[in-house]
Amino acid sequence: MKIEQIYTGCLAHAAYYIESKGEAAIFDPLREVQPYINRAKLDDAKIKYVFETHFHADFVSGHLDLKEKTGAKIVFGPTAKPNYDAIVAEDGQIFEVGDYKVKVIHTPGHTMESTTYLLIDENGKEHGIITGDTLFIGDVGRPDLAQKVVAELTQDKLASLLYDSLRNKIMPLSDDLIVYPNHGAGSACGKNMSKETTDTLGNQKKTNYALRADMTKEEFIEELLDGLTEPPGYFPQNVLMNIKGYESFDKVMDKAQNPLSPKAFDAAANETEAVVLDVRQQSEFIKGHIPRSIFIGIDGNFAPWVGALIVDVTQPILLVTPKGREEEVVTRLSRVGFDNVIGYLDGGFEAWKNAGMDYDTITSISAEEFAKDFEGKKDVVFDVRREGEFVAEHVDGSKNTQLDYLNNYLSEFPEDKTFYLHCKGGYRSVIAASILKNRGIHNLVDVAGGYDAIKKTDIPRTDYVCPSTLK
Rhodanese domain: from which residue to which, for each copy (predicted)? Predict the structure, then answer.
């Protein structure tokens, strides 16, 4: 069967393309749709359907633009209620794509409309399942997202439905089916996903904790909900955009193509209350940046951090980017629903400096320098990694102030003395430093290289000890 996984690492997202006899279908496309259109052109094929496994929370799908540009029909599973023209399929309904068949299997649990698509080849053989967020490699979809949009859809209710969907709809299928999930490791839509992005269903039955044959519903719910962290704040807004519709990607891009001189950029920032988002490399931001700008580097886990920290997708944004990467940045912002980029600094930060505009810096020191006189610093060390990373091992005496929830910790940073920030490798701590400076907190020092560099010094550290090993 001709199926291609189109994987986007920065979102840990997988879309799928199938083609048979000049007809094609796309499953769970990203916001920018031209790559899918170009792929179909290579096969001289027409995109007939856009299949959606559910209303996504972590990205804005490109289904509406694909429909507009290609005439393809949008297909959702049972119970979906989109605010635009789409096919809401029945459980068991079959769609034809050339000689292939796509069978709808309603699998509620991650969301109520969540649907798995069974792929059947030209010989009538069942080839694989496109599972969306129902089944990942090593995990299953978290059941706590729909409640952010519909209050009565509690995580316990959806977890119960997911258990039934897996046992009654997925696990009875053939072991040799290939599982094609919507996400891989790094996505916030699950908690224990493998770095592998496909597997056989038979192997998942053996290795995926959620598919244990002897698991009771109560055990499933308990294990599924254990360790779930609060989902990023932008998730509900993306769900609503996917349900209600959105501005076309072309219009978003046209609006953002607005190069501004340093003075015009400064005026726009003051007049619009836009967030000034600097996406350069962190070492460049440390050396110089526009005062009160926020750093989230384009070469890191960019879009999810924007969603987690800026949160409001309607927020006006002004960009400071590496030269020539403006379009890339706008594209990656739009993937998570941030469609209100109103311009960018023409000529980048160098133009700002050359115009004689004021700029700020961040004090940053090496791990070796940090290690000197560590005893005098240990009560003012702040680790912005996630809780699991901190629990596993951390600098003695340090405090865990996770970047995801940094605003909740503002009162913990001292006002009367210098404090130190670090993460794992240096990316997140610079984000944290930029946010704190934006809040008027400047008595901070970044530890370059983060915990990875600190481990190479003689600074005392605390490692996690499993309780079962204690005597």
Answer: 270-361, 375-463
